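Translate sequence into structure tokens.
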Amino acid sequence: MATGQRASSILERGVLAAERGRITEGLAQIREACALDPGNAEPQAQLARWLSRLNRNDEALASVARALALVPQSAPCWDTIGVVLSRAGRHEQAVACFERAVELGPERAGLHFNHAASLKFLGRFAEAEAAYEACVRCDPHFWRAHSALAATRRQTSERNHVARLERLLTTGPLDPDAELHLRHALAKELEDLGRDDEAFAHLLSGNARKHAATGYRFERDQSLFDAVMRLFPYVLPAPAHVDLASDELARAPIFVVGMPRTGTTLVERILSSHSQVASAGESQNFGVLLKRACRTPSSQVLDEAMLTQSLHVDLQALGRDYVERTRPPGQAQPRFVDKLPLNFFYLGHIARALPAASIVVLRRHALDTGLSNFRQLFATGFSYYEYARDLRDIGRYYAQFDRLIAHWRATLPGRVHEVRYEALVADQRAETGRLLVHCRLPWEEACLHFERNERAVATASAVQVRQPLYVSSVGRWRRFERHLQPLIDELLAAGVPMTD
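Result follows.
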């Protein structure tokens, strides 16, 4: 067998092993393929892909550089490199790679989808819309493209996709994910057209079927909230060893957390508009590193077993590792902001691991939060947001979130700054000033003009945060109040305040 063929065979086996969960074994074989065929970009691209999946971004980017130097010849190779660059926050470079992939494989729907997503992250919405349309022309059953397309702009009576979406719903048996994407797309477009009751009916139908298919039970999440509060039952002492003039303080990260769809991206954009702050996006590094240090067998990053083991970890060493891995490479700003919403589970660990870190928690009216979670099509493979497909589960989850934040308020006195979305909208200057004071940042007028921030946004709020602050999302729940009784009942039962 020729060397190139042998390398290709080894690479194929390595990728298959990695895809089946044997990543260490797969990486060894992929590295062997790289050594056997050093002039081929494909093994280097696959090495970058799996290093990226392990959050080893520096090594992944080094492999990307080697692959690009070899000038990839295939559309899938360019696409793989684009995905790695996108995961690393290099969206401008990723777009160029996806453009080359589309040139080489214009008939492949998935290449157009990745290209569109990257364009959307950069705020190039008209181009993103055209790329999503190219995707569905290649494959009308590429369901994710329909829900993404609906979200790129406000739909109008003259320009919408309602008829096409309704037709696709009746083309034959659909699996739960296909139906979920189509019904969420229809809900978004019908809501834009003022047809709220029809929109909510699609949300109820699509979410209910997917909720049943996952077999989700709220007790799983309840156990996580309980376990976290058991870990940190007492007030954590203030970080006495932090020197206020130290480099550690000057370069400390900022964590922005909260329930999804409560303004976390908005606050991240305000902060990253500051000359001293870069954005690390929604980094999963803290949880992944903690999980890795705990060495628990479950495939879940966050579970009770990991939490039980977590206080035996050297958290200060973990904090140093986190900062090294998460600080955006090549950025001149001394500070960075990490806005993964679910990091609210880790605030006790973060306070110990990074005593100088600033912590910001977003709060929003319980019913607007619940409605926004129900309307959001979260990634179907991400189990931590499965509560969001049922109104009663959302109510239960919000109540536990509210309880956990009260716990952090008591056990981390002075460390947690709560920002109410409604207050930020009502008095942007005053709330931004308080936010900057908490984060130990001097006032900068640019923070009031976050919509001018040209950095990429790789979250569900990519469209909204390119606009100035608006009030239309405040009190949106009133439009749908007649549909929200299960959510209201759960919040009332838990004693959650629902005043404006």
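Note: The first strand starts at residue 254 and ends at 258.
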